[in-house]
Amino acid sequence: MNSLIKAAQLYKSFGLSVVPVNFQKKSLINWEPYQHEIISDKELRKVFRYSSVEGIAIICGEVSGNLEVIDVDSKHDLTTHLFDDFYSAIQRSNADVASSLCIGATRNKGYHFYYKCPVIENNRVLARRSTTKEELLINPNDKIRVLLETRGRGGYVIVYPTPGYQFIQHDLGHLPVLQPDQRLMLMDIAKSFNLYERPRPTIAIPSIHYYDNESPLNDYDARGDVIGLLEYHGWKLVRYDGVKSYFRRPGITDHDTSGDFHHGLNLFGVFTTSTEFERKVGYRPCAVYAFLECNKDFRLAAKRLLAEGYGVPYNKRHRA
Fold first, then answer.
1. I need a surface site. Which of 129, 223, 237, 300 has the fewest CB within 10 A?
2. 3-class DSSP state for residue 129?
3. If pLDDT is split at 50, 70 and 90, which confidence band does 203 have?
4. Please, are residues 286 and 305 in contact by the beta-carbon 8 Å criterion?
5. What Pfam family is a match, any one (predicted)?
6. What SS3 class is residue 55?
7. How far apart are CA 261 and CA 283, in angstroms?
8. 3-class DSSP state of 296
9. Can you give the pTM of this predicted structure?
């Protein structure tokens, strides 16, 4: 415990925002305030003495001097040499940048690339792949594996001396400050490892400027059981607070919740990068149906919903 407190105090002296985490890598305190200000010495000593503290998280973003981290998720790597290939590609493009990066190894055999930059973004997926047939046999609803992603604004990473974590090149006292073009180089290299092509919707979601309550899509929005649909596809209902239903995504995740359905707005949204849904985008029930049942084909979704009893065929609508 003392070693964690000393390390947290050291990282704080580097201008990094720290919070305590448990074994599941979950923050033991509300960490939203510490995205904007660094914890006080008194509060640090208090919260890092909690009995369930197992490690330290560094909050990325402006509060930590524009810290951003590229997370290499080796457990999803089928080649077994994603880290070596990624680092070698950086070396070929700019050896000085490669040698300046702070790099850490993680508990799950992954890697973190740490740097600061005047220009950073929110968390972003950079490369992923589709699940294999063997993986789908274990969980048919877990369709995507993330290979590389960033942790920036709104994210945090677990660091040494949390058990299982270590630095293999430099440490947090020697963080490089990259120029925007150097950071962009890292982004482009990471994206080159992407193996997943996101299916495109075959037609646009119907415009809200013209609402046809007899269309199967709009009728499903009004009457469809989107909660049951999500559960059927492996989303676990975690809790309901009177306004929103909260879900955990299919597959393995360290987070309690991955998305929610707002009953008043009639919108589903996710705050994870590991599903077919875009993060922080609102999806109507008919869009959730199209994504999960019809591979994002809204035309097919309308046809199937019509067959299931939603809406009225187009040629029979609004007849005088």
1. 223
2. strand
3. very low
4. yes
5. Prim-Pol
6. strand
7. 9
8. coil
9. 0.71
